[in-house]
Write a structure and sequence with these properties.
The protein is mainly alpha-helical and 320 residues long. The protein has nine helices and eight strands. The longest helix is centred in the first third of the chain and has 32 residues.
Amino acid sequence: MLNIIRIAIDPDMFQLGGFLLTWHGFFTFIGVSVAVTLIAYWSRKEGIPPDTVYSVAVWAILGGIVGARLVHVIDWWGRNYKDDPITVFYIWQGGIAIYGAVLGGFIGGAIYMVIRNRDGFINFWNSCLPWLGRMNKIDMPSVGRLADIAAPVVLFSMAIGRIGDIINGEHFARVTSMPWGFVYEHSQTVTLYIHNFTEASGKAILPARPIDATPAAHPAVLYEMIYDVFVASILWLFFRNRLRPHGMLFALFLGMYSLGRFFISFIREDKIWIVGLDEAQIIALITLVITVTLLITKAQIVRPTQKLRPTVAATSAGET
């Protein structure tokens, strides 16, 4: 027990009036900012204008927010939202799911990329939203190409966001006696931990002493953070510019992440949906079936691209 890691940090960084900034929110913001910056940087090296990346990022972020909230609400509907549905929209009170953020972000960005140069969309924009800037067609990369650039970066940004999860103690896992077990001691974190643990697992925590308000638990989020960095390194070092057609690197990212998340979830105390599996594990299995099928039937290993010829793409002033 002498080696148990104790965390007594206030989950809230500061509050100014009605604005509350938590460590989770802060590191999520840092992770998203780093992701957009690095994707724009590497895209520019491949001839994709940063402005194009930024415009896609807006829709990917919106899709990520919607997806993260939706997956969380589905998981917690009967416990938190069924009797008061309006709280579904109270996203500032917390409650998101990383799987929803990843899949929703991809869907949101992909939809924008598919419709961005459509005449109907451009005509609608210029007719109804001219005050946001006149829209013309731009040189838009394929969804798969941009997704491949984003894959390792998204994993790295997910790892950054998990730092906030570790501090906030929002996720709960099985009790452990291992020397790296986490014990949360801040009163606000303890209250949240006990409530969520009881709601998800159906097991009551009855602390004997204030200092041991929560038992030492596996740092499941830390395991996932380490795994994210590991997968990002594998993708970057061994598969970047080696998988074709475009989109296969992103498929490999989803497959590898899903494999790790499936097994890590066994030590988490989340609501069981069916045959001993929680929501994340069910999503992971579905994702694995789709991505493994794509990789087997379509993916090819090619020699690394030595130099990519830049594409010329420019937008006039005022374009969106």
